[in-house]
Design goal:
Layout lengths: L1 E12 L3 E3 L2 E3 L3 E4 L6 H13 L5 H4 L13 H13 L4 E9 L9 H12 L6 E6 L5 H4 L3 E10 L1
Parallel strand pairs: 5-6
Antiparallel strand pairs: 1-4, 1-7, 2-3, 5-7
Helix pairs in contact: 1-3
The structure holds magnesium ion.
The site of magnesium ion (MG) has 5 residues, from strand 1 and helix 1.
Length: 154
């Protein structure tokens, strides 16, 4: 089974930017109820999609006080547990991050390793791609950061 997920968050000066559980050195960070990790949120939705389990908002509403500032690895752990309960195991993950700046080249390996660790996968089963949107649209104007994710489960 395959699943697809997407997430975006607004960027603002002075906020933290966390991608795949890794803190990025950046002037701007995400404005969010949780830690605003678009990589892990897109991954959650991909996992839920593959398992036919709905979406992240149903499972972890952003109106819920207990998720304020939440470390998104909690969401991943919960979703992996749901998949495990249904007898599924995760095969691989492919992510594309869209961020105008900073360039993520030096962070891609760390994001990959951390995401693999969270999911109990070998690093080779997690692929992280990063690109700008060529100054087009909200990501291009550095108003936001986006992530797309697909995964396979069996
Ligand atoms: Mg989100």
């Amino acid at each position: 089974m395959v699943g697809f997920g997407y997430d975006c968050h607004r960027l603002a000066k002075g906020e933290q930017l966390i991608l795949g559980g890794i803190e990025i050195d950046s002037e701007s960070g995400t404005v969010a109820h949780s830690d605003g990790d678009v990589v892990l949120h897109a991954l959650c939705d991909a996992l839920l999609g593959a398992g036919g389990l709905g979406d992240i908002g149903e499972h972890f509403p952003d109106t819920e006080p207990k998720y304020k500032g939440a470390d998104s690895s909690f969401f991943i752990n919960e979703v992996l547990r749901l998949l495990n309960d249904k007898g599924f195991s995760l095969i691989n993950i492919d992510v594309t991050i869209i961020l105008e700046k900073p360039k993520l080249g030096e962070y891609k390996q760390q994001i990959r390793e951390n995401t693999a660790r969270l999911c109990g996968l070998a690093d080779e089963r997690v692929n992280i791609k990063a690109k700008t949107s060529e100054k087009l649209g909200f990501a291009g104007r550095s108003e936001g950061v986006e992530a797309y994710c697909v995964c396979e489960i069996r």
